[in-house]
Amino acid sequence: TSFSTPKKKKRDDGMREHVTGCARSEGYYKIDKKDKLKYLNNSRAFAEEPPADTQVRTRPPLTAGRRSEQRRLLSSFTGSCDSDLLKFNQLKFRKKKLKFCKSHIHDWGLFAMEPIAADEMVIEYVGQNIRQVIADMREKRYEDEGIGSSYMFRVDHDTIIDATKCGNFARFINHSCNPNCYAKVITVESQKKIVIYSKQHINVNEEITYDYKFPIEDVKIPCLCGSENCRGTLN
Description:
Helix content is 23%, strand content 22%. By secondary structure, the protein is an alpha+beta fold. The chain has a domain at 82-126 and 168-210: Beta Complex (Beta-clip-like).
């Protein structure tokens, strides 16, 4: 039952010739350093000399959907140089690396996974656009359902963004009396959006916070941000 293993042959280019016709069927085998270096040099030379009739792309091509979306965004501010809209376009195609995990301030929080410079868009506050009447009805319903926290963000006098059951990571951002971010309303394609901006440089694993700016009420909500100038309450 013992058969002599046929001697492995090498091709003219120095690479090993597989007797079975498939490298995977012959198991693990060691490659000489000379052969490995020869292969690396050949592949590097091929990569450095692209064909003359092809154009080297510096970035992957946009798909049809992304092209149309980019055209819509560009058309919304044609003739203006509003930096907010330009930044929003960049944020749309290159989102910041963020994660949510347990926070020392309250329950869940949002943390940066990459350094963020000052005055940059961090994340858009996404949710359902509803009117004040619907917001009052939903707030009562959430209390009846036992949902302790509702994630409603006022855009203007008539519009509120509800991210309680339909939103993104932005709803996990906690309040702080000394925040590293702030919220700003911008208009894109005739629609108002809430975007979180960085006030200062944010380091990796630093928690994203902003001031909720709740209206003053008799029933106070305690603040647990722990900053030096903490007001003690959110409202």
